[in-house]
Amino acid sequence: MAQREYYDDILCPLMMKAKAGLLTLMFLDGSHFVMGCDFLGHIYGKTRRFIKTFSGRKRYNVLGALNFVTKKVTTIANDKYITATEVCEMLRKVAAEYAGKAVHIVLDNARYQKCEVVTNLAKELSIVLHYIPPYSPNLNLIERLWKHVKSRLRIKYYDQFGDFTETIDSIIEDTCDGSKALIDKLIGESVQIFDTLIPINGNSFAAEAA
Known about the structure:
It is built from 6 helices and 7 strands. By secondary structure, it is of the alpha/beta class.
């Protein structure tokens, strides 16, 4: 019910206004790309094979803000952590990039994104933050972009961390250029909403019986 209400009352109207050029709608979230862990790939066969992969676990953290209409992604990245400091840096970067425009950002309820320092800065910069309901990553459409990036990473072995991060940056930068047609199909007005899920425990949900 919360997801449906959020979509009907907040998200869908924002999408329509963004497409009409009345405001700038962005989806914000961070993703953590672990080299040598998440992107090993799979080979199926009867013969055992050994596959070369990176031996470390270096992590590339990317905080992204996706423009719903243009599919341009503004990023803040590092190999340490994403904290409220990076979120504030992102807000300033977005405010400068879209100066003079009404900016609305959809994001989740992570503590470092919903703390007082972030909400106060957003008000100072005249950026409106829209927090999605708990357990609703399906409403934050940038999640689809991260899935796309990770699928592209799995097709190659990376020997150097620099090559790994450059590839990630290149895929993200291409979302509003060469890959825009594909990203438009991935990220549009259609949003999957789970109306009938009921909680089983703190981490599990099931479809409600008819």
